[in-house]
Specification:
This protein is an alpha/beta fold. Helix content is 38%, strand content 23%. It has a 4-stranded mixed sheet. A 3-stranded mixed sheet has the order 2-4-3. Strands 5-13-6 form a 3-stranded antiparallel sheet, sandwiched between helices.
C-alpha cells in the first residue's frame, strides 16, 4: 500500500494582495491579476511584469493571487486570474487542453526554454572515493540502496521526496513508484510547499547525508548544490509558457503584446535566484535588480517610449 508523508502541509488558501507602484492607486486603472505560484522564479517574473506595466504603461496596476499549479491554471480558465507567467503545463496536460480547447485560455509562448526536472541525488553520494552508492545511476537502482535513505518516521524503509502537494508533477512521481516497484522499499514523501521540499534537500546536503527526490531548474538550490539527476526520472522537457485569460486580449492589449515578447533563459533565472538567495531579498527586490541589471533583456519586450519611462523610474 502507498504511504504518503505530508511535510508541513497546510490548507491551501487563495488570497489576493496588491503591490502597486506609487502614483498608480487610481481606481480607474485596469488591474492585472497574476497567479502567484509558490516558487520564487514565478513570483519574480510576476513582479518584473508588474514593474513594467505600472511604470512603463499608463492606466494599469497589478495584483497577485497565491496558489499552486492546478488552482492557478483553473483560475486562468475561469477568469479569476489574468496571467500565469510560468505555466509548467506539461505536468497537467488535461487541464491545459481543457482551457485551450474551450478558448477561455490563450497560450502566449515560452517564458524560458526546456526547464529540467526529475529525481536528484547529491553527487558526493554516487561519485568520488567516499561515495556510498557508486552504482546508483538510475531509479531502478534505488531499492538496493534504500537503507541509505532511511525514513525518519519509518526506519524500516527509505524515503523518496516525490514532490509537493497540489503540484501537477506529483502524479508523475506516483507513476515512478509503480513503474519501478518502489513501494516495498520506500515511502513517498510529499512536501507541503516548495520551500519545505528544498529544506529536506539542503538539510541532508549540509550533513553529507543521502537524499533523493524531485526538484527542478531554474532554482537557487540546484544552482548552488552539486546534484545528479537519476536516469529514468527525466521528466519531459517542461513547457514553461505564459498563459492568459481570453479577456486580456480586449482589456489589456498593450500588456498582451509585451507578454508575447517576454522571454528569459534558464541562466537568467538562475542568476537572479542566486542573487535573491545570497542577499536575502524578497521577490520585488529581485525583480528590481533584474530591471536595473538586465536592460538588454527586458528592453527587447517593449517599445522605446515604454523603455524610456521604465529607465526614468529606475533612476528615481
Amino acid at each position: 500500500m502507498k504511504k504518503a508523508i505530508i511535510i508541513a502541509l497546510s490548507l491551501l488558501t487563495i488570497f489576493s494582495f496588491s503591490l502597486t507602484a506609487e502614483g498608480q492607486q487610481d481606481s480607474g486603472a485596469t488591474t492585472i491579476i497574476f497567479g502567484d505560484v509558490s516558487w520564487d522564479s514565478v513570483q519574480v517574473h510576476n513582479r518584473i511584469m508588474a514593474y513594467i506595466i505600472e511604470n512603463g504603461l499608463e492606466g494599469y496596476k497589478a495584483d497577485f493571487i497565491a496558489g499552486d499549479t492546478v488552482p492557478i491554471i483553473n483560475g486562468i480558465i475561469q477568469g479569476d486570474i489574468d496571467v500565469d507567467m510560468e505555466s509548467w503545463h506539461s505536468n497537467v496536460p488535461e487541464i491545459y487542453k481543457k482551457g485551450i480547447d474551450s478558448g477561455d485560455m490563450v497560450d502566449l509562448g515560452k517564458n524560458m526554454p526546456d526547464a529540467p526536472q526529475g529525481w536528484w541525488v547529491p553527487r558526493y553520494l554516487v561519485e568520488g572515493p567516499d561515495a556510498q552508492a557508486p552504482d546508483l545511476k538510475s531509479v531502478s537502482d534505488l531499492p538496493k540502496y534504500a537503507h541509505l535513505f532511511k525514513d525518519p518516521e519509518d526506519p524500516s524503509k527509505g524515503i523518496v521526496y516525490a514532490g509537493v502537494a497540489g503540484w501537477g508533477q506529483l502524479a508523475t512521481g506516483e507513476e515512478y513508484f509503480d513503474k519501478y516497484n518502489l513501494h516495498d522499499a520506500f515511502n513517498m514523501g510529499v512536501a507541503g510547499s516548495g520551500t519545505a521540499l528544498a529544506g529536506t534537500m539542503v538539510g541532508a546536503y549540509k550533513k553529507k547525508e543521502a537524499w533523493v527526490g524531485y526538484y527542478w531548474a531554474p532554482t537557487a538550490v540546484l544552482g548552488k548544490l552539486d546534484m545528479v539527476r537519476l536516469k529514468g526520472s527525466e521528466y519531459p522537457a517542461a513547457n514553461v509558457n505564459i498563459l492568459v485569460n481570453k479577456s486580456m486580449l480586449d482589456k489589456a492589449p498593450e500588456v498582451v503584446e509585451i507578454l508575447k515578447k517576454y522571454s528569459t533563459t534558464v541562466a537568467d533565472n538562475n542568476q537572479f535566484l542566486a542573487k535573491m538567495d545570497d542577499e536575502g531579498w524578497d521577490s520585488a527586490q529581485a525583480a528590481e535588480w533584474f530591471m536595473k541589471n538586465k536592460e538588454d533583456v527586458w528592453s527587447q519586450w517593449v517599445n522605446d517610449e515604454v523603455a524610456a519611462r521604465i529607465k526614468a523610474s529606475l533612476q528615481e
